[in-house]
Write a structure and sequence with these properties.
By secondary structure, the protein is mostly beta strands. It contains no helices and five strands.
């Protein structure tokens, strides 16, 4: 599902739908880690989205990891998406 994760960059936005609400996140950090690195799953004190997938070289090569900060919810007005800060 994250085949093109390597094309995402710091500053890009990610939207997640959860229980009828669309949340907006902004990527703040991108890194590649070893396939055994579980530190990327550590809890944080601030809301954060962590997305990761195998690199294109395969599961033994490493993981592409995106860390994204919650920027708000998405509302629609006149057919345009607007971020409502939390």
């Amino acid at each position: 599902p994250f085949y093109h994760i390597n094309n995402m960059n710091v500053g890009d936005q990610i939207y997640v739908d959860y229980k009828g609400v669309r949340y907006g996140y902004k990527i703040v950090k991108k890194q590649t880690v070893a396939p055994t690195d579980v530190a990327i799953e550590a809890r944080t004190t601030e809301p954060q989205l962590t997305v990761y997938s195998c690199t294109l070289s395969g599961s033994n090569d490493g993981r592409e990891v995106l860390f994204a900060k919650l920027i708000g919810t998405v509302s629609w007005e006149n057919g345009k998406a607007n971020i409502v800060s939390l």
